[in-house]
Amino acid sequence: xxxxxxxxxxxxxxxxxxxxxxxxxxxxxxxxxxxxxxxxxxxxxxxxxxxxxxxxxxxxxxxxxxxxxxxxxxxxx
Length: 77
What we know:
Elements: H1 6-16, H2 24-76
């Protein structure tokens, strides 16, 4: 996000809201909902990362086995 002035951003949101005031309770619930949505997306990313780590682990276990089998088959000729 561009480095914009906080007052300009606040003015934009006030205009969207019809320039009515927010209560502190409204702002608190908004912030909590935003944090919840961030937590959900973070858990999805964690699951993807674990899947990739698992695939890499399996690859590094199977690579030496595949090389050994290829060398053995090559030595039979």
